[in-house]
Amino acid sequence: MYSEKVMDYFMNPRNLGEIENAAGMGKVGNVKCGDIMQIFLDIDENQVIVDAKFKTFGCGAAVATSSIATEMIIGKTIHEAMQITNKSVTEALEGLPPLKIHCSLLAEEAIRAALWDYSQKTGTIIEGLEPPKDEDHDHHHHDHDDDD
Amino acid sequence: MVYLDNAGTTALRAEALNAMMEFMSENYANPSSIYRGAGYAKAAVDAAREKVAAAISAARPNEIFFTGSGSEAVNWAIKGIALEHGGRGRHIITTAVEHHASLYAAKSLEKQGFDITFLPCDEFGMVHAEQVADAIRPDTILVSVMMANNEVGTIMPIAEIGALLAELNAQRGNEKRIYFFTDAIQAVGHIPVDVTALGVDLLAISGHKVYGPKGVGALYAKRGVKMTPLIHGGGQERGRRGGTENVAGIVGMGAAIELAMAEMDALSENHRKMRDALIAEILTKIPHSRLNGHPTRRLPGNVNITFEFIEGEGILLLLDSKGFSASSGSACTSGSLDPSHVLLAMGLPHEMAHGSLRLSFGKDTQKSELDKLLEVLPEIVSRLRAMSPLYSG
Which of A10, B35, B162, B286 is deepest in the core (most CB within 10 A)? Predict the structure, then answer.
């Protein structure tokens, strides 16, 4: 059911782990849906994301999307990282089954939650960034099939 | 590959396939026709009917009606009784832990104005006879309780409920009779099933859970029990289920169920030993794991374990990569976004319902295969826990 690329990122997850005293940390999802994603960012003085790590409770797609999302943002500035969307994550994984599209949305939200944490800690303004939604927000009731 | 999803489906056994072959090639006649070939096909269907009847100790072979699946048999029993007897009563009692075939059949009736009581289960997935007794009303027409749970393997007290209903029905009389249906799809061929001892009026069976083909099932309906047909058509199945008989499928199911019955006692004894040993090993070797379902009143070949802090699909993918096929109650594997309704009904919190693993044995399951599983499973669980933000161990 998964593309080879999704399976590769699930079987050999890149950037798994935590960053101590991370510049930014975002945790999204809830146990009710069965997906929790946590993303840690290390950001240098030029606002470049020099490292990113993740931890995920969830299915194969949830692990793969969070892993590839960390790869996609490393080396980017915090402003460039805002361009990562659920669509670009899904495309990078060569597609996801329709029921798993919500996982890619969680990855996008996790990055933004981590950036929000950074912006709050440092007083940096990131254009287009909104505060993360309530953690108990139920992602499943949204319609995210625009990527099919 | 080690196949541990026999509660999902089983491999068609060679004897059943061999019995089927002629009806998929030279002996293609329609059993309802008049020519000689038709008589041959009809005789084969009748012989299969006798084998299925014998497997559940039905008094007469003509109490067996072949269907296109176990799900059809379940739907027919529930909707057929409701449609036939809905004029005198609109209340149906079932449980929260039924297979979706039963659960959604009942919910579809609810939309049509029937009043459905979904009995809750205890922590082991068990529903008790007293709960059924307490739920009965003057307008109750049907009680539907599965014999053994497909996910957690818990065996329900069907005979007790049957005895209770027999006593009640003696007082209520025929006009107020409550029919009793059990979905025995996970039970037949695995544990003894005797329709008279159980006191059931209707009972559903599936072919592919006992090494028969997919696309065939059967409904037992005791003589005199009337249910409205779901499929109107020709006069097949004594006018109660239209559609030209799936002769090959029926013959395959008959052959498979006959063999399953002959092997049942020895196999279930062996499964029970392997099951209890595997459960004990997993719970010892892997911290933060717990057994789902009843410790003793469970199907001989069912093991269902929750591993805390992780999600079931990941376990299945990693097990698959090591050559093991299994299933889970996690949302990701259910085709929906909710975790198992059975585990939730048993009171498991969502995160624990997502982290369940079901291992179901088959007739070819070997102890050595389970030993191999025990070599890889702890590492798989640790690996996923290392990924999990819920785990801090």
Answer: A10
